Amino acid sequence: xxxxxxxxxxxxxxxxxxxxxxxxxxxxxxxxxxxxxxxxxxxxxxxxxxxxxxxxxxxxxxxxxxxxxxxxxxxxxxxxxxxxxxxxxxxxxxxxxxxxxxxxxxxxxxxxxxxxxxxxxxxxxxxxxxxxxxxxxxxxxxxxxxxxxxxxxxxxxxxxxxxxxxxxxxxxxxxxxxxxxxxxxxxxxxxxxxxxxxxxxxxxxxxxxxxxxxxxxxxxxxxxxxxxxxxxxxxxxxxxxxxxxxxxxxxxxxxxxxxxxxxxxxxxxxxxxxxxxxxxxxxxxxxxxxxxxxxxxxxxxxxxxxxxxxxxxxxxxxxxxxxxxxxxxxxxxxxxxxxxxxxxxxxxxxxxxxxxxxxxxxxxxxxxxxxxxxxxxxxxxxxxxxxxxxxxxxxxxxxxxxxxxxxxxxxxxxxxxxxxxxxxxxxxxxxxxxxxxxxxxxxxxxxxxxxxxxxxxxxxxxxxxxxxxxxxxxxxxxxxxxxxxxxxxxxxxxxxxxxxxxxxxxxxxxxxxxxxxxxxxxxxxxxxxxxxxxxxxxxxxxxxxxxxxxxxxxxxxxxxxxxxxxxxxxxxxxxxxxxxxxxxxxxxxxxxxxxxxxxxxxxxxxxxxxxxxxxxxxxxxxxxxxxxxxxxxxxxxxxxxxxxxxxxxxxxxxxxxxxxx
Length: 661
Known about the structure:
Layout: E1 2-5, E2 9-12, H1 18-34, E3 41-47, E4 56-60, E5 64-68, H2 71-86, E6 105-108, E7 110-113, E8 121-125, H3 141-154, E9 159-161, H4 166-177, E10 181-182, H5 195-198, H6 210-224, E11 230-232, H7 255-276, E12 281-286, H8 289-295, E13 306-310, E14 340-345, H9 364-376, E15 382-386, H10 394-405, H11 414-422, H12 426-439, H13 454-470, H14 487-512, H15 519-523, H16 525-550, H17 554-577, H18 595-613, H19 620-626, H20 646-656
Parallel strand pairs: 2-3, 3-5, 8-9, 8-15, 9-10, 11-12, 12-13, 13-14, 14-15
Antiparallel strand pairs: 1-6, 4-5, 4-7
């Protein structure tokens, strides 16, 4: 005996919430897109006492009955039917899965009982979400966010930071309407408006304006009090930095004083929330400098506050590097220390070496080890995963969804399962996924220190800027990598690192290029291979150009800067060529890695070098490389063509100096 799920199946849910109605509409869409018509029958949603929050029972007979006690219980049950009984995968939208087609689905009579997730609050932070801001995905931008929240729910998630700054406030209502809890960026206490935006012209100093801060926090609580919220308690400065960066009083000049103020502020924020919300749940992010102050014993926290520890942006549970300040203080939860959780990055933006538009530069084994240690140390209350713009990061998001619903999940089978679900030609694609972390450049002697694309794009721009502004003076922004006394020494260190790593990147690109039949593969794995290879070459050529310039070989430096620009052009072209169908415009706002701007800066460097090496009237290099040898020293006519642009001159000089790649 079986229940026949088909387009004639009706779903009844008397007096259901907006969130449950959204889930019903998702299941109805999936049924109508996948199944045909058969017998009339019914799915009924029935409220019933459950042993744990978010749990459900599906009882299949002549009718299919769903029993749950809360919205998320019903939502997860409806999405279980979508995935397990129809075949709609968690990342169907983000990885181009077609809806399966069949006449109907046979569901055997019996009961399906949910298994509670092992992590209480588990979700995503849609951070650095610049690709999602204006992308329309064949319809409108709201659909993009709706699909993001649907994917999170399909992964068993229940909480979200629905964007950064303005985007979080814009999207909070939609996330709540879909049944998700809301929490906040570690630099936005209680999800409040930033002080500098609310009070333009005033210095964001708590010492000077405590009452203005209190008002911002209370306004935020009132605006969100009807949502399910885990209230983030914190106090950092404007722009995600220490608060003392904005305080000119000099009062907070010791760790004790800094910690004391943060402790007082957190206590006050608790009071404000309790004034408006019954039985609130609190968390605080021990991030960056706060982790260091907490470890030193300078921050006091109520034991009921969930302490959220963070990795360093590269997946290792140590404090993040801030500029060249990198203490790598362990940030692992402490066993038996009360309610604890993590903020974990599989995408990061740090203007140094992180990944944003390419996949996380490490292995699932590495991630699994870190997350397993978190669990061993009782970090089970709260997991927020920085998922950035989702599409480049689904491989690890899919692994982490397994981990947070079943903490015993091992990493060994993940690649095969993921590839078999979402890609064709699975053996080849599995090999490419497995080889990816092995091909990447390691920039420091730590297991987490592998380059994302920012290492190439940002540091190339920094070198160009430093040449133009300061000549051979060391670039302070490169001190995190090398703090030599001259730019030339810094550049040579980066050049040597690239030179060592490029052969592996070349071999990896060659491997991925062996099969370009699958659009999804070309737009993900092959694209990442191209970005790494072309951008690493772009940085390598920038370093060579800077080295030649600083040694006085301006002509060679000019050509090498042009070579750098062309490599970044190739990477940008690969990025935009990966857009097809609904993905048109997805990378249009690549303004963080900003490959195209790296090409722009390489050309700016090229132009600067010409001003130094060519003569003021721009005919010296022109005559040397354009004129025949016997005509170069005859000046009856100074020039016989319009002045060459930098690009025109580069092409001639590249050809004449045999600088072909």
